[in-house]
Amino acid sequence: MKRQKILSWKCRDRVLEVGTRPLIMGILNVTPDSFSDGGNFFDRNSAVEHGLQMVRDGADILDVGGESTRPGAAEVSADDEAARVVPVIEALSKQTHAVISVDTWKASIARRAIDAGARIINDVSALTHDADMPRVVMESGAGVVLMHMQGTPRTMQQAPHYDDVVTDVSRYLQTRVQTLEAMGVHRESLAVDPGIGFGKTVEHNVSLLANLASLASLQRPVVVGLSRKSFLGKLTGCEVSERLAPSLAGLVYGVLHGAHVMRVHDVKESCQAVAVAVRLMESRLCGRC
C-alpha cells in the first residue's frame, strides 16, 4: 500500500487536507424513516446533542440529512426537509468548529443549509437531480460529494445491472467531475463517492470496495459510506443493530485501500479503528523507507 497523495478539498472558507489521515464523517439523520436510526434524532434538541457528541467522539464532518435515501424511500417536500435540517445545522454551526455537510439533492435546501452554516453538499445524484444545484455550488464555493447511484432511491434496488461495475462507476464519476469543471465548478471543491448500496447488488458492492484504487486516477478525495448497510447483513446474517463489527471491518479495509473520508454512524468506534489501522500502515510504510 502506497502513501496517499495529499489532496485539498475546498469547502467554502475551509480547506480540508485529505490524505494525511482518514477523515470521519458522522451521519446525523433528522428523519423518521432512515434504515438504521430513523426517528432516534428526529427532535431538534436530540439531533443537535447527538451531533455534538459525535464531534466529541472525533468526527471531522457532520452530515445532516432530512430525507431518507434508503431503498424504496419516497421524496420529502422541500418545506418538510428544510424544517428538519436547517435549525439543526444553524445550531451546530454555532456550537462546533466541525465542518457541516448537508445531505440533499435539492438546490433550495442546499442554499438554506449553506446560509445556516453548512460547508459541504452531499448529493446522492452527483448534482444531476436539480438543475440549479451547480449554480448553488459555484455561488457558495461549497464542497461537494458526487455520489454514483443507479436509478433513484425508490427504484435503485430493482435489478441493478452493470457491464463492469468498477469501470462503469469510475467512468461515471470521471465524467461528472469533467462536466462540472466545464460548467465552472472548481475541481478542488469536488469529492467522489462510489455509492455503496445505491443501485448495487452485494457483489457489486464487494467489487467496488475491493477496487477502490480505481478511483485514485480522479485525483479527488474518495468518500465511502458502508456503515450498517444491508449488504453487510447479507454477508454476515446480522441485523442492522448488530452490524458494528462488519462496518468496522469494511471501514478498515477502505482506509487501507484508498478511502479519504468514511461516512459512519458509530463515530467513537470508527475513530478507534482508524487510529489502529493508520498506525499499522505508517509502520509498514516507514519500514520501506
Biggest sheet architecture: 8 strands, parallel
How do the helices and strands follow one another from N- to C-terminus? EEEHEHEHEHEHEHEHHEH
Number of domains: 1
Strand fraction band?
A: 15-25%
Low-confidence stretches: none
In CATH, the homologous superfamily goes by the name Dihydropteroate synthase-like
- Given helix and strand content, the structural type is alpha/beta
Strand order in the sheet with the most strands: 8-7-6-5-4-3-10-9
Give the CATH architecture: Alpha-Beta Barrel
Look up the CATH topology. TIM Barrel
* Arithmetic mean of pLDDT: 92
DSSP summary, beta strand count: 10
Gist of the model:
With 289 residues, this protein is an alpha/beta fold. The chain has nine helices and ten strands. The longest helix has 21 residues.
Protein topology:
Elements (H helix, E strand, L loop, with lengths): L6 E5 L2 E5 L4 E7 L14 H13 L4 E5 L12 H18 L3 E5 L3 H10 L3 E4 L9 H8 L2 E5 L17 H19 L6 E4 L8 H9 L12 E3 L4 H7 L7 H13 L4 E4 L2 H21 L2
Helix pairs in contact: 1-2, 2-3, 3-4, 8-9
